[in-house]
Amino acid sequence: MTILLKNIKEILQVRNQHIDKLEGQEMKTLPVLENAFLLIENDIIKDFGPMSDCPTADFDEVIDVTGKTVLPTWVDSHTHLVYAGNRELEFVDRINGLSYEEIFNRGGGILNSAKKLQELSEEELYEQSRKRLEEVIQQGTGAVEIKSGYGLTLEAELKMLRVIKKLKDNYPIEIKATFLGAHAFPTAYKDNHKGYIDLLVDEMIPAIAKEGLAEYVDAFLETGYFSCEETERIIQAGQKHGMIAKVHVNQFTAIGGIEMCVKNGALSVDHLEIVTDEDIAVLKGSKTMPVALPTCSFFISIPYTPARKMIDAGLPIALASDSNPGTTPSGNMNFVVSTACIKMRMTPEEAINAATINGAYAMGVGQDYGSITKGKKASLIITKPLHSFYELPYAFGSNNIEQVILNGKLQ
Ligand SMILES: N=CN[C@@H](CCC(=O)O)C(=O)O
Ligand SMILES: [Zn+2]
């Protein structure tokens, strides 16, 4: 199967060679090819170049995209999009003055979602989740990481991870699964933290590894949730079973978590609404990608990750949606990119780099996704006609996507 896109106004994120990630000043540049063609062969980007070199052979499909922009699909490296029901009552509670912490302390928050999920069948959980996945595909996401963590028992965590596996099997979007059993202490273990960590380490992680259900391991390293020492035990147990760490850290407080994660070779540290100068120094030159989740800050009115300061200090940044029922009931990466520009003062070039190449690094899929490079997967966004690509973050409430191609297939 061959598809030729011709008369492309501009292709964004054109990279002749694969690059792992972009940091600091490098993030300012987004390579663009104007008046171009792009050839897809099966699921792969076979060729691209200026229209003057456009091939003329017989192709299965030829699409004229005059006036439109082509870019790689978004890579959303941090989501919780498998969940049961939603939490719109807590949304109203927050409008009426309660904080996220106060809601959690009343038995809401993650424990509220866990109760709902434990009561729901695997089939119904799949049904609810596939609709969210279909929505983000239409919004241009071509690779997505999905966490467990609303089960909090072995049985319910397995249910979540099996649903993620079924989504992987049934949809052309790239999916990676993360085990987040350490999302909150279940009520039964409120005063027995060691007992729950033992359960995670001795039973849950080995059982999940045995079924091959998770590539990554995560924990909510935060005051009132999992301490640095507890998280370290969990991520080291995950590593023994081949799971790499991607950790929720510094959402509300800085308690030394970033240093511990970097020391343990975490692929990413995510949230980072509170970042100290020591955190920046520790991340500098490390292999750990800082991941910002600006639509979480937007939704629950907490500080934004200080991306400007971090990039200016030479760090890379990836952007992800954090799609979940409590702090970010949206997986729309277009809005993530807009919010990063509007609220974090990232330039459109930086934000698009952060949501493509750096997102792919944070999700471990950089070899196949995140840039327009020959041999990578043909997962592409075709926009509506635009004045310039700046209109993507600028027109924050508009849908500027005309067509999505995932692994060579028109969606
Ligand atoms: N902060 C931890 N976990 C999720 C929210 C969980 C919830 O409130 O359901 C997050 O990344 O924001
Ligand atoms: Zn999260």
TrEMBL record:
GO terms for biological process: L-histidine catabolic process to glutamate and formamide; L-histidine catabolic process to glutamate and formate. It comes from the Bacteria. N-formimidoyl-L-glutamate binds at residues 150, 324, 326. Catalyzes the hydrolytic cleavage of the carbon-nitrogen bond in imidazolone-5-propanoate to yield N-formimidoyl-L-glutamate. It is the third step in the universal histidine degradation pathway. The keyword NAD does not apply. GO terms for molecular function: imidazolonepropionase activity; iron ion binding; zinc ion binding. This is Imidazolonepropionase. It comes from Myroides phaeus. Pfam families: Amidohydro_1 (PF01979). It is an enzyme of class 3 (hydrolase).
